[in-house]
Amino acid sequence: KEPAATIVETLKDVTSYEGEDAVFECRLSRETTQDAQWFLGDVPLQSNEMNEIRVQGTRHTLILRKVTLEDCGPISFKVGQHISAA
Question: What is the annotated signal peptide range for this record (predicted)?
Fold first, then answer.
């Protein structure tokens, strides 16, 4: 069983204007096959035309495209028992 990855670079608060993209980044202690999940409030996010979720090695990135006022709220990233929020 692989050791759990931990969050070594936490999310930073992002301020963006309506119509802009908002970019959130988190870095893990190592690459992992564990489920990593992004949330807006309590809603799990999927990669689609509104959200882009990227994983490059230990770096996990969420891009909210052309944000609206409805996108305002807490963003969180969860892997295993570890969570980071902005």
Answer: none
